[in-house]
Amino acid sequence: MGESGARGRSVLLLACGALAQELLALKRLGGWDHVSIECLPAQLHNTPREIPDAVRAKLEEVKDRYDEVFVAYADCGTGGRLDVLLDEYGMNDFRGRTATNSSRAPSASRRSMKRNSGRSS
């Protein structure tokens, strides 16, 4: 399982590589020792249709290693395909709502997946 800190939970922040420096600074400043950050290549912005497949591959790779995974991406030109992917994983936004039970679907940048959510995929 991933890093575990004072909070006792391992958390992964899966993010766009364009945000890497800012996220590392937030981790350092916020004392987020329990958070691991993995970034997909920023060059995916040049081929946004590839972003959902890259996110899916990484989610599959890490889903059993962390207690919770957050995806820090906006739509980034995927035409809504990233939100569809995150819905498939039953990922919640930070307020705990799922896109399917809220009146307005949350942006992908606020989604999280909990390992023990009962999802088999």
Task: Walk me through this protein's architecture.
With 121 residues, the protein is of the alpha/beta class. 26% of the residues lie in helices and 19% in strands. The chain is built from three helices and five strands; from the N terminus they run E-H-E-H-E-H-E-E. Helix 1 links the parallel strand 1 and strand 2. It is globular.
> What number is the mean pLDDT?
78
User: Which of globular, elongated, flat, extended, rod-shaped describes the shape?
Assistant: globular
The secondary structure category is: alpha/beta
- Percent of residues in β-strands: 15-25%
Assembly classification: single chain
How many strands?
A: 5
What percentage of residues falls in helices of 4 or more residues? 25-40%
Topology order in helix (H) and strand (E) letters: EHEHEHEE
N-to-C terminal Cα separation, in Å?
18 Å
Biggest beta-sheet profile: 5 strands, mixed
Low-pLDDT regions = 1-6, 94-110, 116-121
Radius of gyration: 14 Å
Total of helices: 3
How many structural units, i.e. domains?
Answer: 1
Main sheet strand line-up: 2-1-3-5-4
